[in-house]
Design a protein that fits this description.
By secondary structure, the chain is an alpha+beta fold. The protein is 53% helix and 17% strand. The chain has two domains: 171 residues, no CATH class; 155 residues, no CATH class.
C-alpha cells in the first residue's frame, strides 16, 4: 500500500464515529438487499418445486397453464399423439391434484397429490424408507419427507389416514429436491388411484411427460405439439415460465423490487451524507496535503480508497449477517424459503459499488475545490 493510501486509511479509521456510521449504514443496506432478494429467490425456487422434483425433460400442457399447481386437464388423444411423434422415446401422463387428509388425531390437513403413471412410475421420488413397488399395494401412498412433513403428524410406514373419505396407508417416505411454495405436504400414489380418490373433470391428464430420443429432436417435438394446440416446454423453459408468472403477474416481484430499492436508497443516503460530513471535517487535512505537494489525482485516489474500503467491508458484513440470519431461521423454521444465490450476491455488490461511487463523487467535488491558501489563511 502506497503512503498516500496509508494516510487515507488512518484518516478514515481514526474518526471512529464517522467510520462506524458509514459502516453501519452500508452493512444495514446490504443486509436488507440480500435478505429481500434471497427471499425472492427462495420463493421462485419453491414455486417450481413440482417440476424440479419430477425431473422430466419435456412437459406438455395447455398454453394457458402458467404454473405447475394450476394445471388444465388434457384429453387422452394428446397422449396418444405425443407417443407417435418421431423423436419421442416415450410419453407418460402425470396427475396433480389437491385433497383433504384426515389424520389419526382427527384433524384435517390439505395435501398435494401426485399421481404417477401406473406402468412406469416415471417421476418417482428417491425413497428413504420402504420400496417404490409398495405403491401398487391397496390404498398405498408415499409421503414426501420435506419441510411440510410435520403437518401430517410425522407419519411412519404403516400409518393410516383418510383422504377424501377413502382409506389411505403410508407405504414409504421419500426425499425430494425442493419443498413446495404454499406449505402443503405432498403425497405420491398411482395415477389411477389418484383420479379415483380425488374428484376430477372428464379429462384427468394434468401434464404429459416426454423423453426425447436426443436433444436435437426437441424442436421438432415442440413444433408437432404446437400444431395440436398445446405447448411443449423443456424443464428449464417451464421453470422460467413459472418464475416469470410469479415475478410479473403477481405482487411478489413488485413488492420485493420496492423493498430492495428502498434498502438501496437508505444505504445511499446514509453513506453519502456521512461521507460528506467526514470530508468536511477533514477538509483542512486534505488542504494541507495539497499544500505540501499532493496532486489532485492522489487526493482522488484517497477518497476512492476510503469509499471503496468502507463499502466492501460493509458488503462483507452485510452478506455475513444475512447468511447467518438465514441459517438460524432455517434451524427454527423449516418452511423458511430464503436462499443466497450467486445472482443475489452480484446484484448486492453492484449496488454497493454504486453507493461507493456516489459517496466518492460527493467527496471528490469538495476536495478538488480546496485551495491551500484558504486553509492557512487564518
Amino acid at each position: 500500500m502506497s503512503g498516500i493510501l496509508k494516510i487515507a486509511l488512518k484518516l478514515l479509521v481514526n474518526d471512529k464515529s464517522k467510520f462506524t456510521a458509514l459502516l453501519v449504514g452500508i452493512t444495514f443496506a446490504v443486509f436488507l438487499m440480500t435478505m429481500m432478494t434471497s427471499m425472492f429467490a427462495g420463493i421462485l425456487n419453491r414455486s417450481a418445486a413440482p417440476v424440479l422434483n419430477i425431473g422430466a425433460k419435456i412437459w406438455v400442457m395447455d398454453p394457458a397453464v402458467n404454473n405447475a399447481t394450476s394445471s388444465i386437464p388434457m384429453p387422452d388423444y394428446i397422449l396418444s399423439t405425443a407417443r407417435s411423434i418421431n423423436g419421442v422415446k416415450y410419453a407418460v401422463p402425470v396427475y396433480f391434484g389437491n385433497a383433504l387428509v384426515k389424520l389419526k388425531s382427527g384433524t384435517y390437513q390439505a395435501a398435494n397429490v401426485v399421481g404417477l403413471d401406473d406402468a412406469t412410475l416415471y417421476g418417482r421420488p428417491e425413497m428413504l424408507e420402504g420400496k417404490i413397488e409398495d405403491i401398487y399395494a391397496e390404498n398405498a401412498f408415499i409421503v414426501s419427507k420435506d419441510a411440510e412433513f410435520k403437518k401430517l403428524e410425522n407419519p411412519k410406514v404403516g400409518t393410516e389416514f383418510e383422504i377424501n373419505d377413502h382409506r389411505g396407508q403410508v407405504v414409504g417416505l421419500a426425499k425430494v429436491a425442493s419443498s413446495g411454495l404454499f406449505g402443503i405436504p405432498t403425497l405420491y400414489t398411482t395415477l389411477n388411484r389418484a383420479i379415483t380418490y380425488i374428484p376430477s373433470t372428464r379429462f384427468t391428464t394434468s401434464f404429459i411427460l416426454l423423453e426425447p430420443k436426443s436433444e436435437a429432436d426437441i424442436p421438432f417435438i415442440q413444433q408437432q405439439i404446437h400444431k395440436l394446440g398445446y405447448q411443449a416446454l423443456t424443464e428449464n423453459q417451464f421453470v422460467k415460465k413459472i418464475t416469470d408468472f410469479y415475478t410479473y403477474q403477481t405482487g411478489v416481484g413488485m413488492n420485493v423490487l420496492m423493498m430492495t430499492a428502498i434498502s438501496f436508497i437508505v444505504g445511499l443516503s446514509i453513506s453519502g451524507q456521512t461521507f460528506y460530513t467526514f470530508i468536511l471535517e477533514n477538509l483542512e487535512r486534505f488542504g494541507a496535503l495539497k499544500a505540501i505537494g499532493a496532486k489532485g489525482s492522489e487526493l482522488i485516489s484517497m477518497i476512492l480508497f476510503q469509499a471503496s474500503f468502507t463499502s466492501i467491508l460493509g458488503y462483507g458484513l452485510g452478506v455475513g449477517m444475512a447468511s447467518t440470519f438465514m441459517i438460524l431461521a432455517r434451524l427454527r423454521l423449516p418452511d423458511y424459503a430464503a436462499q443466497v444465490t450467486f445472482n443475489n450476491l452480484i446484484l448486492a455488490f453492484v449496488m454497493v459499488l454504486i453507493i461507493a461511487g456516489f459517496s466518492s463523487y460527493i467527496g471528490v467535488r469538495k476536495v478538488l475545490q480546496i485551495q491551500p491558501f484558504d486553509i492557512f489563511r487564518g
